[in-house]
Specification:
The chain is of the alpha+beta class. Among the domains are: 121 residues, no CATH class; 93 residues, no CATH class. It contains 14 helices and 9 strands. 18% of the residues are buried.
Length: 323
């Protein structure tokens, strides 16, 4: 009969052998998995090939990252090349900045352009060999303007219909439309081309009509201003393609028997395709704004800083730290 002490020693011996076998099996499994995963990336399987330098490995990784973006392989790009912190977030179901930068074709095109410019320079590898820095040269103006791949929005030049006749006749017709609660018709026939042809004209027009309905005093003020213009001599003498009507500011009561004169007003008009409209002072501003919105931001070098892409090495694989 086995003594309890001998039985306990035997059990501990069996446990130690079983534990060692489990540790060995686990390491073997991890080694096989790492080899399979590394083989999916450039430089992952180097069997039978000549040894490569860190510069060659990181350039191969950069090339593969660009190829994945061009092919629309967002999942593969995030899995193999997104910063490691963002990869961890993605595996928890939280998509980071990398996904936001490549989630649509236009944004991805900007990233591809940036990485292609980075791939054309020799990376600086740190002494430890785990960081590669690509200093991107500043683009010329022509390439900067075309980074988005889309033309800048412009003011629409579609034909507009307005009020026929002289300036006085046009303003009188506008007053009639306002009095008949046809404010939308007055807006379409009298407002500047820059407003009606704005890239977001439909949205801006709807917002204006909502404001006018919420504040009917604004409509009454427009009617009052147009009627005051019609009483001036300048409107009758208006000729050519432009006109400017100035009116002295009215006196208004401020209480306690005091009065204050409002600022003078000047209304400017122009003929557009044979119809009188308020003068367009917004087209140039809108065109400048839309060009600036479509233009890529200036390179960091303009602010005295370096524009860089940085990759870091994990084992024999490279992924982005900053891009």
């Amino acid at each position: 009969m086995i003594a309890p002490r001998q039985l306990a020693c035997h059990r501990r011996s069996v446990f130690r052998r079983t534990y060692r076998l489990l540790i060995f099996a686990t390491f073997t499994f991890c080694a096989i998995l790492l080899a399979q995963t590394s083989a999916q990336q450039p430089g992952g399987d180097k069997s039978g090939s000549a040894a490569t330098t860190p510069e060659q490995d990181v350039q191969a990784a950069m090339k593969d990252a660009i190829a994945r973006l061009k092919a629309g392989d967002v999942v593969g790009f995030i899995e193999f090349y997104a910063p490691v912190d963002e990869l961890r977030q993605a595996r928890r179901g939280r998509l980071g900045k990398s996904y936001e930068r490549i989630r649509n074709p236009t944004a991805a095109a900007n990233v591809i352009n940036r990485l292609e410019r980075a791939s054309g320079v020799t990376p600086q590898i740190n002494i430890a060999g785990f960081l590669a820095t690509f200093t991107i040269p500043p683009p010329d103006e022509k390439s900067t303007d075309s980074l988005t791949g889309e033309p800048a929005p412009k003011i629409s030049q579609e034909p507009l219909s307005g009020y026929p006749g002289s300036l006085a006749e046009a303003l009188q017709a506008a007053v009639v439309d306002i009095q008949a609660d046809r404010t939308e018709a007055m807006v379409d026939r009298l407002f500047p081309r820059g407003e009606l042809g704005h890239p977001e004209a439909a949205l801006r027009r709807n917002q204006l009509m909502v404001r006018l309905k919420q504040h009917p005093e604004m409509v009454k003020q427009m009617q009052s201003d147009l009627q005051a213009i019609l009483r001036t001599q300048d409107v009758q003498r208006a000729s050519g393609d432009t006109a400017a009507i100035s009116m002295k500011g009215q006196l208004v009561s401020t209480g306690r028997g005091r009065q204050m004169r409002l600022p003078d007003k000047t209304f400017r008009f122009e003929k557009v395709e044979g119809f009188w409209r308020f003068k367009d002072s917004t087209s140039k501003l809108v065109e400048t704004q839309t060009k600036m919105a479509a233009k890529a931001p200036p390179p960091l070098s303009e602010f005295g800083a370096s524009d860089v892409v940085i990759m870091e090495r994990f084992g024999d694989r490279w992924r982005f730290l900053e891009f």
